[in-house]
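#lab-general

N.A. 3:47 PM
ok so I finally got the sequence cleaned up, no stray characters, all 162 residues accounted for. can someone with queue access submit it? mine expired

B.Y. 3:52 PM
send it over

N.A. 3:53 PM
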Amino acid sequence: MKSTIQFIILFALWLLLTWSVQLADIIAGIVISILAVALMGDIFTGKMYRILNPIRLFWMVVYIPYLFLYIILANLDVAYRVINPAMPIRPGIVRFKTNLKSEIGKTFLANSITLTPGTLTVDIIGDEFFVHWINVRCDGDSEKQGEIIAGKFERILGRIFE
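B.Y. 4:20 PM
back already:
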C-alpha cells in the first residue's frame, strides 16, 4: 500500500513537471516512478512524513535564501582571497560534532557546507564531521570551528529535521 501511494505521488509530480499527456511522456513517467519507488522507496518511510508539518515547511522556505546568502558571502570571501595575496590561506581538515541526529539532517548540513565555497565536507562518522576549510581558524578548538562552519546552518536544519 505504501509503495502504491509513493508511486502515485511521484507520478503526479512527473505529470506536473513535464506538463504533458503524450503517450511517450506518460510511459516514461510510469517507468521512472516505478524505478524510484523500487530503488529508493525506503527514503519516504519512517519519519519523513514530519517534513509536511507547516512549521517545518516554513523553516525550509526560510533556509533556502539563508543558504544562498551564505553561499554569496563565501564566494566573495574566496574571490577576495584570490585577488588579494595578503589574505591568509591556511587550508586544513577540521573535525567537529553536530547536534543533528537524523541522517537526512546531517546530509543537508554536509551538502550546505560543501555548497559554501571554501569548505568541503570530506567525511561524516556518527555525529562527527570532517571538513576541509580554506582558512582554518581557532586552532584546536573544534567547538568554535564547528560553530563557524556549521552553526549558522545547523540551527535552522534542527528546526526542520529534528
